[in-house]
TrEMBL record, chain A:
Family named by the database record: Belongs to the ferredoxin--NADP reductase type 1 family.
Localization annotation: Mitochondrion
One GO CC term on file: mitochondrion
Cross-referenced Pfam families: Pyr_redox_2
Any one GO MF annotation of this record: oxidoreductase activity
Keyword check for Electron transport: yes
Predominant location: mitochondrion
Keywords: Electron transport, FAD, Flavoprotein, Mitochondrion, NADP, Oxidoreductase, Transit peptide, Transport
Residue span(s) of domain FAD/NAD(P)-binding: 17-173
Stated name of the protein: NADPH:adrenodoxin oxidoreductase, mitochondrial
Keyword Kinase: no
Automatic annotation (TrEMBL), chain B:
Primary location recorded for the protein, binned into one broad class: mitochondrion
CC cofactor: [2Fe-2S] cluster
Lineage per the UniProt record: Eukaryota, Metazoa, Chordata, Craniata, Vertebrata
Organism: Gouania willdenowi (Blunt-snouted clingfish)
Coiled coil: none
Function description: Electron donor, of the core iron-sulfur cluster (ISC) assembly complex, that acts to reduce the persulfide into sulfide during [2Fe-2S] clusters assembly on the scaffolding protein ISCU. The core iron-sulfur cluster (ISC) assembly complex is involved in the de novo synthesis of a [2Fe-2S] cluster, the first step of the mitochondrial iron-sulfur protein biogenesis. This process is initiated by the cysteine desulfurase complex (NFS1:LYRM4:NDUFAB1) that produces persulfide which is delivered on the scaffold protein ISCU in a FXN-dependent manner.
Protein name in UniProt: Ferredoxin-2, mitochondrial
Annotated family: Belongs to the adrenodoxin/putidaredoxin family.
Domain of life of the source: Eukaryota
């Protein structure tokens, strides 16, 4: 039907219209693949914050700027003629999934994992206990983490979890300020770390060295971190070297590096370096948190009680089994880094609350035709950018298969962003365009230049909107 | 930044008109701090971005990229290196390149879907390729940092390398670079057919 009165005949066309919810790697890589593969697809990316890029901006550590180069690829996609970015739009609150389904041929959910797995132990709510996600959000300028004010006045910090996020937190806690001050770490975090009295960080895992979840690059960075020395327990590594010959290369190289660090007598130069190191870090294995203990007068964290485990089975499937023993470790800072969790943003969607993902088959959401998912909300919160890239390309391929087979009907005329932006306007929501983001980008870059940093991030949504929309 | 904006516009126009990539050495900003492609400038809004926009729309046909200025690919036959990319569908794409070309950027130039998320800074594994056996040993040993990144790549094989670390030499003439089939279509036992 032609709607000549409203002029929609000019804009509505038979091109497939897709909307993507979330502008991190999951969203952008899905968009990139679709735009490239089909010359007729028109794509709108909705993002809750005024700024794009998700964990690339808020998760990747400040001292890993090369990992953030992927922003250039995403920028190209956003500026493509068939792609539009709409920031400051909260899907679930400002607009519903059903309204998006009405306006688009397909909806892709790639809103990631903004929640936390909790330890579920007494004392988790004490002052001095933080989720790694919030700690990382704090030093990376995530608006709702800016009031975190972590207490860094203690000597020992214990991190639960041994994935790359745990290693990032350890490294940021112990890195020399001279290294951090030329990164895009936020100014408040930099100042807090400059005053920090944390000198020792223990990175604790339930299982053993062969089950550690981090990657070799991050371990190497700790081993080479200036001003620090490793503090490992050789007993943790008993029997490890014997099983290495049958282990795949990545696990083998990583374990060999740990063995070398834990067991080898260092050469003269390294011995000297360690003698003059004022900070230390180490892995602790076979320990699970049982309780965070408080100093009775101040009610601040004073120690963490850890259960001692033993392993049953081997390799990736090894299970940690309680032995009944416990051990208390004195510390004033506890950071739990045991996994992010996706949340359900619309009650109309299916959700697997055990795995905290949207149930799907190759990106096609179960029982919900026309709605797909990619990134961590599809597979769970693990993996690096390359992993999410492959996962997103896979979802895009499912969508293309469905378009070709007719399983996804793209013949009807859909109104796309025209109707959604009208709806948002009616609700008092003003989306931030990509050009608006570039104003924010420019302000942050200029502020950074004055301080010898790649950027100085704006820390509140209000500030971002002020720059974007005036 | 007017200078870099001017370069972007002029490079964009040149690319659009003649569909070539100009040789960096012919650009007045080459080697200077204003060069948006320099390794130290990680905030690039670069001519590279324009390359990719253009090249994503190109057909992959050889001969499309003869440069009219200065260093043409066919000018010095000693410099020519012929390689073959095998893309993720198994399609073979022969490419006439030259000594010094970077395997990842060369793939981009020819519209081959090899990603390069970190832009050749050894911070990702998205440019992972398999190198033909006959040429694998001719490559210099990988840097420890490359090995660390390769460890994170899906479907790692003995002949895996990161494309961004392979620079063409005459010895590598005839090399085949196969993109891993990282899709649900890969063989259940992990077998990947070796290129012929």
């Amino acid at each position: 039907m032609l709607h000549l009165v409203s002029g929609q005949a000019l804009f509505s066309s038979c091109s497939p219209k897709v909307c993507v919810v979330g502008s991190g790697p999951g969203g952008f890589y899905t968009a990139q693949h679709l735009i490239k593969a089909r010359p007729d697809v028109e794509l709108d990316i909705y993002e809750r914050l005024p700024v794009p890029f998700g964990l690339v901006r808020f998760g990747v550590a400040p001292d890993h700027p090369e990992v953030k180069n992927v922003i250039n690829t995403f920028t190209q996609t956003a500026k493509h003629s068939r792609c539009n970015f709409y920031g400051n739009v909260n899907v679930g609150r400002d607009v519903t999934i059903n309204e998006l389904k009405e306006a688009y041929h397909a909806v892709v959910l790639s809103y990631g994992a903004e929640g936390n797995r909790t330890m579920g132990v007494p004392g988790e709510d004490l002052a001095g206990v933080y989720a790694a996600k919030d700690f990382v959000g704090w030093y990376n300028g995530l608006p709702n983490c800016r009031e975190l004010n972590p207490d860094l006045s203690c000597e020992t910090a214990v991190i639960l979890g041994q994935g790359n996020v745990a290693l990032d937190v350890a490294r940021i806690l112990l890195a020399p300020i001279s290294m951090l001050k030329s990164t895009d770490i936020t100014q408040p975090a930099l100042e807090a770390l400059a005053q920090s009295q944390v000198r020792r960080v223990l990175i604790v895992g339930r299982r053993g060295p062969l089950q550690i979840a981090c990657t070799i690059k991050e371990i190497r960075e700790m081993v080479n971190l200036p001003g620090t020395k490793p503090e490992m327990l050789p007993a943790d590594f008993e029997g490890i070297s014997e099983v290495l010959k049958d282990v795949p290369r990545p696990r083998k190289r990583l374990t060999e590096l740990m063995l070398k660090t834990a067991l080898e007598t260092p050469g003269e130069k390294e011995l000297e370096r360690r003698k003059s190191a004022s900070r230390s870090w180490g892995f602790r294995f076979f320990r699970s948190p049982v309780e965070v203990l408080a100093e009775p007068r101040t009610n601040k964290t004073s120690a963490i009680r850890l259960a001692v485990n033993r392993l049953e089975g081997s390799g990736a499937d090894a299970q940690a089994v309680l032995t009944g023993e416990v051990e208390d470790v004195t510390c004033g800072l506890v950071i739990s880094s045991i996994g992010y969790r996706s949340l359900l943003i619309d009650p109309g969607l299916p959700f697997d609350s055990r795995k905290a993902i949207i149930p799907n088959s190759m990106g096609r959401i179960q029982h919900t035709p026309g709605v797909y998912c990619s990134g961590w909300v599809k597979t769970g919160p693990t993996g690096v950018i390359a992993t999410t890239m492959n996962n997103s390309f896979d979802t895009a391929r499912s969508m293309m298969e469905d378009m070709d087979s007719g399983a996804l009907d793209v013949s009807a005329v859909k109104s796309g962003s025209q109707s959604i932006t009208a709806l948002l306007r009616g609700r008092g929501v003003k989306p931030v365009t990509f050009a608006d983001w570039e104003k924010i980008d420019s302000v942050e870059t200029k502020k950074g230049e004055a301080e010898g940093k790649p950027r100085e991030k704006l820390l509140s949504v209000e500030e971002m909107l002020q720059v974007a929309q005036t | 930044m007017a200078a870099s904006a001017a370069v972007r516009t002029s490079v964009g126009l040149t690319l659009k008109l003649s569909r070539i990539i100009p040789d960096c050495s012919s650009c007045p900003l080459y080697g200077s701090k204003s060069c948006v492609r320099s390794a130290t400038n990680s905030q690039r809004r670069s001519s590279q971005d324009t390359f990719r926009i253009i090249y994503r729309h190109l057909q992959t046909s050889i001969g499309l990229y003869h440069s009219d200025d200065g260093s043409s690919n066919t000018e010095d036959p000693d410099d020519v290196v012929n390689v073959v990319y095998v893309d993720r569908t198994g399609q073979r794409i022969p490419v006439q390149a030259k000594v010094g070309d970077n395997v990842m950027y060369l793939a981009h130039k020819h519209g081959i879907d090899l990603e390069g998320a970190c832009e050749a800074s050894l911070a990702c594994s998205t440019c992972h390729v398999y190198v033909s056996d006959a040429h694998f040993d001719k490559l210099p040993e990988p840097d420890e940092r490359e090995d660390d990144m390769l460890d994170m790549a899906a479907m790692l094989q003995e002949n895996s390398r990161l494309g961004c670390q392979i620079i063409l030499t005459r010895e590598l003439d005839g090399m085949e670079l196969t993109l891993p089939k990282v899709t649900r279509n890969f063989y259940v036992d992990g077998h990947v057919p070796k290129p012929h």
